[in-house]
Design brief:
The chain has about 100 residues and is an alpha+beta fold. It has one domain. It has helices at about 30-35, 85-99; strands at about 5-10, 40-45, 50-55, 60-70, 75-80.
Length: about 100
């Protein structure tokens, strides 16, 4: 269960009653790690936000969520592992930022 100082809700799939993030082999605690200390957090589409970062176990994830300002909570739409060109681009931006 997420506990990063804000309430949250997860998108569930009706077929299996599991959070959508589980379809991408992502666990709630990994989402919490990214949202607590994101490497990047920027605007997404239609009011969503995109947080990218590295988990404590070393995985790079992208978390798509919608902040709910009136409730001071977030609605987590999905999260998945960053691979290929998006991962390379993220690492390049992080290196530039650290210089």
């Amino acid at each position: 269960m997420l506990n990063f100082g804000r309430e949250y809700s997860l998108l569930y799939r009706s077929e299996n009653s599991l959070p959508h993030i589980h379809n991408h082999n992502v666990q709630e605690h990994e989402v919490e790690e990214i949202l607590t200390t994101p490497g990047e957090d920027r605007p997404g589409k239609e009011g969503s936000r995109v947080a990218l970062g590295q988990t404590n176990s070393g995985r790079y994830l992208r978390v798509i969520y919608v902040p709910e300002r009136e409730k001071e909570s977030v609605f987590i739409i999905t999260a998945y592992e960053l691979t290929g060109k998006p991962l390379l681009a993220y690492r390049r931006r992080r290196r530039k930022k650290q210089k």
